[in-house]
Amino acid sequence: MCRVIGIWLLGLSIPFTFLASFSGNKAALSAGEKGFPTETLQQLKLHESFADIFTWSSLVLFILWIYFFSRKMENKQIDYLAFAFLGLLSAIALTTGYLGTQLVYIHGVGTP
User: Fold this and answer.
1) What pLDDT sits at residue 94?
2) Inter-residue contact 98 to 54 (CB < 8 Å)
3) What is the dihedral of CA 7, 10, 15, 16, to 10 degrees?
4) pTM for this structure?
């Protein structure tokens, strides 16, 4: 199996992650103008924090993965470490998605 496919997939996802983050920030600004309750705005801030952590962690992981992979290509421990961090990023993405789903379907953020 090709060992670099994960690096390529992570690299391809990063621009779309930043686009999603920018559009989410724009939606958060419009939600702040609508006067939602404090609880909803706190959940929105938590969602935004998880999204920012995910976005920047993806970029850092991608850069570090390329750096260490290019320096020690034969070392498979780098792949295992990257796999562990990808699992952590997946958990952060699931949490972000869950919070976003609650914001839309329970609190009505982003709906007309």
Assistant:
1) 97
2) no
3) 150
4) 0.86
Report pLDDT digits (tens) over 16-60: 999 999 988 888 888 777 888 889 889 999 999 999 999 999 999
Which tokens is 61 given? 């992981």
CA end-to-end span of the chain, whole Å?
Answer: 47
Tokens of 69: 């992979």
Can you give the length of the chain in residues?
112
Q: How far apart are CA 76 and CA 62, in angstroms?
A: 16
Cα distances (Å, whole numbers) of residue 50 to 1, 2, 8, 28, 73? 32, 31, 23, 14, 32
Half-sphere exposure of 60 (CA within 13 A, CB side): 8
Query: Which residues make Cβ contacts (< 8 Å) with residue 27, sequence separation at least 6?
Result: 109, 110
